[in-house]
């Protein structure tokens, strides 16, 4: 079945790749009369080419772009977005097809490894996620130490960082990031503290799987905590999204509800170099440990102009209440009596 899906979901090249050209930009520096030709590739020019332009004795020409509004800082084949045309692709696969035909674990595998998994690979990943879904007691205690009215994103930030502090000791055996042992050795610590994990793809992937598996559990624990409820442990027989719902209220859910939430998670799985992704890359570039870099992403996501927009959408939907109220709400927006997120 998965093999057939992979054939059906044929990767599509990004528009930029389809229209790749090797044209150039002709620049005349009116200060000196010098002429320069700057190569254009994939609709971009390299800053180092502009740095070659300078007045005698002056500094290289630089680009001033506050907020990096029109600046590319990385190239990636993981995700492609064209918001104006409504295009979102993961590794070349159209989001519409992925949302209609695959599960969240398959999308996670796709983003991590570059292609959809085989049946065996998918089952292996699901088993790994189930093994790593348990959260250390230290992290649970940390969550419980927060006031129930504390911001959930602040609790999540602290818990992710704490998960990293525990993972060098508690997660290695579960994720096979290093040789099995009963105590935290210098070798184990080096896998998470410092650059060793970032330089070893197998180790990095193992800790990323750990972060996703435990992250869902942490999120469910936080939801239970703010409601004043005891935590529900992960169910060993449930897949990731269904398990998340189970940990929220301790009961099975309608498959339609499970699938609806799964599609929502698939749609939010990857969105190019947004604010939180940039924060993760910025911190990771210093060769921090993996979980500290991820915590930086959580911190960025907590902002009103990033993750806060999702909350604003929910609040908007609560105001609209039903489809019969949509037209009236849009009219209020036009009259500036209401705002769209």
Automatic annotation (TrEMBL):
InterPro entries: Citrate_synth-like_lrg_a-sub (IPR016142), Citrate_synthase (IPR002020), Citrate_synthase_sf (IPR036969). One of its GO terms (cellular component) is mitochondrial matrix. It comes from the Eukaryota. GO terms for molecular function: acyltransferase activity, acyl groups converted into alkyl on transfer. Keywords: Transferase. GO terms for biological process: carbohydrate metabolic process; tricarboxylic acid cycle. Belongs to the citrate synthase family. This is Citrate synthase. It comes from Eimeria tenella (Coccidian parasite). The lineage of its organism: Eukaryota, Sar, Alveolata, Apicomplexa, Conoidasida.
